């Protein structure tokens, strides 16, 4: 039986990921600074910014799902958010390297592109936005995610470790879909109306765990459709008329952030949509 360590196991996505891994028969250990009564697995209280604690906690693991982070540039000072997220990611990868763990899945974010939290809003260079699009954050959180991805790439170069940096869109639980906001596209303009159902986010982590793809891969983990009842072309025409480079003929509500690479690399497909709850 493989042992999977999940950092941030008490968090929103961590709880769902651990539930799925337990159901699949894995031995799971949650690392977090908080105890959760929602988890049916071993829990260890760990400060991920302390490398010694991380090495001790990862000992015996076969793979790591690193989801722990301050999840937005809110609630803490900028330097703390950046420092916490970057050091925790580095420590997880360094500890995995020391212990000979060959697979690490990192929770990155679509915020790495910079659109969501930008003090000076800007438009994509082209659509759909794929992993080749420049990352241009103007704040600490998006920058911390880029540094985390580059750290994963460095560890692959140094050790041959298999690393997946998962750029999750806004993660939504089934009970949290709001049809009233779906009809107000201005609410989600900064995230390009991108989202991922938490069940699909968890299945993407499982797909990465099972993947044999070598190297470091940065992947958009997002839905096939937009978080809006407007057609995609109408959204772009209304809110991003300056974006002239359309690399797809949008015919319905196709996503503006592309998940094509994740589908190919992970052999994964999102199956849930807000449209199913109508």
Short précis:
This protein is an alpha/beta fold.
Low-pLDDT residue spans:
none
If you consult CATH, what is the topology? Rossmann fold
Rg (C-alpha, Å): 18 Å
Task: Give the overall shape, derived from the CA principal axes.
Answer: globular
Protein structure class: alpha/beta
Number of helices: 8
Summarize the biggest pleated sheet: 7 strands, parallel
Compressed to H and E, one letter per element, the order equals EHEEHEHEHEEHEHEHH
CATH architectural label:
3-Layer(aba) Sandwich
Helix content: 25-40%
Report the span from N to C terminus. Answer: 41 Å
Q: How many strands?
A: 9
Keywords: NAD, Oxidoreductase
Family: Belongs to the NAD(P)-dependent epimerase/dehydratase family.
InterPro entries: Epimerase_deHydtase (IPR001509), NAD(P)-bd_dom_sf (IPR036291)
Domain NAD-dependent epimerase/dehydratase: 4-221
Protein architecture, described:
With 278 residues, the protein is α/β, with parallel strands linked by helices. The protein has one domain: 3-Layer(aba) Sandwich (Rossmann fold). The protein is 34% helix and 16% strand. The chain has helices spanning 12-23, 51-58, 78-99, 140-159, 179-182, 198-210, 232-239, 260-266, and strands at residues 3-7, 27-32, 42-45, 63-66, 103-109, 162-168, 170-172, 195-197, 216-221. The strands form two sheets. A seven-stranded parallel sheet has the order 3-2-1-4-5-6-9, with helices on both faces. A two-stranded parallel sheet has the order 7-8. The longest helix is centred in the first third of the chain and has 22 residues, at 78-99. The protein is globular. The mean pLDDT is 96. InterPro entries: Epimerase_deHydtase, NAD(P)-bd_dom_sf.
